[in-house]
Amino acid sequence: MDKEEEKRKSLKIVAAVLVIVGLLILLGVTIGTCVKDSNKDEDQEILRITLDINPSLEINVKGDKVESIKALNEDAKKVLDKELKGETLEEALKWVLDRSVDLDYIDRDQAVILVMADGKYDQEELERCIRNPITERDIPVEIVVVKETTKEDEDFAKENNITVAKAHYINELVNERGVNASDYVNKSIREIKETKDTGNTCEEGYKLEGSLCVKETGREAAKKGKVCPAGYMEYNGKCYEEAPIEETGNYKCSEGKLSGDKCVIERSSNAIPAKYSCSKGTAKTRYEAGLTNKNDGDANDVVCVDTSSATHPVSPCELNDGTEWTKSGGKCYWHRAGLLPNGCPGKVKVNGECWDDASNVLICKGARDGKQYSSRSEYCEGTVKYTKPTVSEYKCNGNAKLSGTKCITTESVAAEKERACKTGYKLVNNDRCINESNVKELEEGYVCGKDNSRLEGDTCILFETKEAIKS
Prior knowledge:
Layout: H1 3-26, E1 47-52, E2 56-62, E3 65-71, H2 74-79, H3 89-102, E4 111-118, H4 123-135, E5 141-145, H5 151-160, H6 164-177, H7 189-198, E6 200-201, E7 207-209, E8 212-221, E9 223-227, E10 232-235, E11 238-244, E12 246-252, E13 257-259, E14 262-270, E15 272-277, E16 282-285, E17 302-306, E18 325-328, E19 331-337, E20 348-350, E21 353-357, E22 385-387, E23 390-395, E24 401-403, E25 406-414, E26 416-420, E27 426-428, E28 432-440, E29 443-447, E30 453-456, E31 459-467, E32 469-470
Parallel strand pairs: 4-5
Antiparallel strand pairs: 1-2, 1-4, 2-3, 6-32, 7-8, 8-31, 9-29, 10-11, 11-28, 12-26, 13-14, 14-25, 15-23, 16-17, 17-22, 18-19, 19-21, 20-21, 24-25, 27-28, 30-31
C-alpha cells in the first residue's frame, strides 16, 4: 500500500470518528464529564455535592475535577479507601458507588440515593454520572434530588452530624408520617423512602424490607448446590427471569379513603356524657350521694337521687314504733334495765330504774339495726331511691366532632404508592415479578440450607424478621 492510499485511509477513519462524536453530541450524550462545558472555566466557583446512601460524602468540584472529598460518617470512611483528589467527577462517583455496592451499602435489588448540589451544574448530567455505575451492575436506582432546605434542616443536620439534604428528607418524613426524627438519623435513604411511601418502620437494630423488619444474626459458609443464574429466581422448581416491583404513579390506602396522595381516616369513639336528667330526683355522682369513697373506681358514676319520700332520723323519744323510752328533766332516756344492788353502773338512775342517756341519739323509725345518725338533716337508710339517669347532652375532647352519641376524629396520612409488575411479568410471593416466558434451568452454585438466610457470594447471611410497625 503506497503512502497516498494510507493517508486517504487515515483521513476516512478520522472523519468517521468525528461523525460518531458529532452524532453523540446531537443526541445529548456527553463524553467523560458530569458538568456542562460552560462550567469548566478556571475561574469557575467550587461546586459542592453531598451524596447520601447511608455512607454520606461531600465532594467539592472545580470544573470537572475533584478538589476534595470528605467522609461525613464512618460508613463513608470505609468507602473512601483511595485518593480521589484530581480525578474527574465521573471517575470519583464511579469509584464511590462501586465501592458502596461491593461493601453492601447499596442493596442489589434497589438503590436509592439522595443528592444535593450547591452551585451551577447540569442536573441531568449529574444524575447520569450517579446512575450509570449502578445500572451497569444491573441494580435499579432511584435518585432523589434536594433543591431547597430550611434553617430547621440546617439546625437538625448540625445536631446530628448528618448532611442538610438528609436532614431535609427526614423532616419531610416527620411532616408526612408524624414519626420521631431522631429515629431515622442512622437509617439508609432507602429505608427512609420506604417509610415515606408505605408508613412502615422498624425499631432500632432492624432494617426495613417491604412489610418486614430484618436483623442480621450471623454468617456462615454457603454449600455447593443447584441455583438459578444471576437475574433469575426459583419458583416452583424452575428459574424465571425476575424484576423488582415498580411504582405505578397511583396511590392506595390500606385504611381510610383516598384523597389525592393522602388517606383520610375517620375514627369513631363513644362520646362523653356532659349532662344528665332524672324523671325523679337530682343527678349526683355516687361519691356526692354518699354511696362510695372518693377514690373508688365508681366514685364519678352518676345516679338519680330521689329524696321526695325519704325520712330523717329523730330522738328515740319522738318515735312511736314500740321503742321503749322515758323523759325526765327535759332529757330523753332509753334502754331500760333493772336497778342493781350497787345502783346503775354505766347507766343513769331515773325514777328508780336504770336507763341510757339518749340526749344525743338520733335513729330512724322502725330501724332495728342499731344504726345511729349524727344529724337530723341526714336521710334514713333505705328511704332514698336511686335510679339510673338519662344522658341529655354529650361532648367530645380535643378536635373530635360530635355526631349523636359518637365522637368522630379525622386524620390525614400519606397514601402508599401502588406498585405492580411491568407488562409481561407476574407477581409472586407478593414482592417479586417473574417473566414466565423466560425460563432457565438450575445450575451449579452456592446455596443456603437454613430458613431465614440469604446468599451473598459464597456466604450465607442469617437473619430474623418481624412485622414492620405502621407509623
